Task: structure prediction
Amino acid sequence: MADNPGLLSNLPAQASSFIGREAEVAAVRAVVGGSRLVTLTGAGGAGKTRLGLQVAAGLLDGTRDGVWFADLAPLRDPDLVAVTVADVLGV
Result:
């Protein structure tokens, strides 16, 4: 973000279509409407990241501040969460 002030997203391009899960998309969108930060939790391989990216992509046109994705999956040290998020946000 700091390198490109006009950039409003760092969402990765998706290689496949997102099909189904309308109820989950609606539920996450409802939560996002009242919060600046949303964390999806659940078992590995359940599709949390893909669901989050789908919802985030759908929000791009409705926000002036952008939509940002911080991939915390590879982190093993909880002390790195704040640093990783700050890096993504460019602060």
